[in-house]
Amino acid sequence: MKNPHITQNIAFFFLFLATLLIVVPVGFIVFVIIQKGLPAIDWQFLSDIPRHGMRAGGIFPAIVGTVYLVTGTIIFALPIGLLAAIYLSEYSKENLLMRLIKLAIVNLAGVPSVVYGLFGLALFVIFFKFGASILSGSLTLGIMILPIIITTSREALESVPYSFREVSLSLGASKWQTIRNIVLPNAVPGILTGTILGLGRAAGETAPILFTVAAFYLPQLPSSIFDQAMALPYHLYVISTQVPNVDEKIRYGTAFVLLALVLIMNLVAIIIRYKFRKRKKW
After folding, report:
1. Its domain of life (predicted)?
2. Bigger pLDDT: 138 or 268?
3. Residue 2: what pLDDT?
4. 3-state SS string over the chain?
5. Would you say residue 39 lies in a domain?
6. pLDDT tens digit sequence for 154-175
7. 220: domain CATH number?
């Protein structure tokens, strides 16, 4: 007869090994980026424009362009994603059509980003004639992260105990009042966490913005949503592959700023989730 403690220890060993196989390479990559990129970080690098064919100067236009894109993405994606999640969680009936829609949303989250880039090029840049612009890029990125926001928001809404709804309805509140005053406040941690994680993915994508918004080099900042913009992911790609003789310190410094931006978003998501979970009474 097998000893259950031995089986458990073997299982724990393989789980620990699997964790190491994930954490160690990622940690090594982060360590290398920090080690080689940190010496490039100073005020001039963060606030100056690229100079001498992007072989010197800073990355300020790319930082601003990334912030514009992330802001436009959240303005477009969050309201639509949240409303879709509310409908699927609270109003839709469980039937074949709804199951197919939910399955399609989950599958869309796994579509390669380059496909979204081609879709944005065909729809927003060419069909709607927005051109390569911040508007086209934000809408494309918004569509790309919509499945993430809808899925995480729906799961957060469905995690609220049904008894909360029953008590509210029994006190005479309407269904919408129950959702607005009872369900949504208790689902905020999951909704915000999923949204910020989606934005982290949008901030680090290159393929969608390559087709819809990114410019090779722009020394000035965009003045409207119909202007092109530089962005950190594409700028990193350009100075790493298209521009010769770029100092390694500049490439890794750009990668460090992009990594820091994404990690800050994830850290904000963790802090928000922790603070809201402390308020939970269930």
Report:
1. Bacteria
2. 138
3. 59
4. CCCHHHHHHHHHHHHHHHHHHHHHHHHHHHHHHHHHHHHHCCHHHHHCCEECCCCEECCHHHHHHHHHHHHHHHHHHHHHHHHHHHHHHHHCCCCHHHHHHHHHHHHHCCCCHHHHHHHHHHHHHHHCCCCCCHHHHHHHHHHHHHHHHHHHHHHHHHCCCHHHHHHHHHCCCCHHHHHHHHHHHHHHHHHHHHHHHHHHHHHCCCHHHHHHCECCCCCCCCCCCCCCECCHHHHHHHHHHCCCCCCHHHHHHHHHHHHHHHHHHHHHHHHHHHHHHHHCCC
5. no
6. 999 998 888 888 988 898 888 9
7. 1.10.3720.10
> What is the rounded CA–CA span in Å between residue 160 and residue 33?
41
* Token reading at 137: 């890029």
Residue type at 186 in one-letter notation: N
Domain with 274 in it: 61-279
Task: State both tokens at 194.
Answer: 């999923």
Domain assignment of residue 259, yes or no: yes
Structural domain contains residue 172? yes
Structure tokens at 160: 């609220």
Q: Is residue 46 part of a domain?
A: no
Please write the tens of the pLDDT for every residue from 201-243.
888 888 899 999 988 888 888 989 999 999 999 999 999 888 8
Rounded (10°) angle between helices 184-203 and 134-158: 140
Six token digits for residue 71: 């802001």
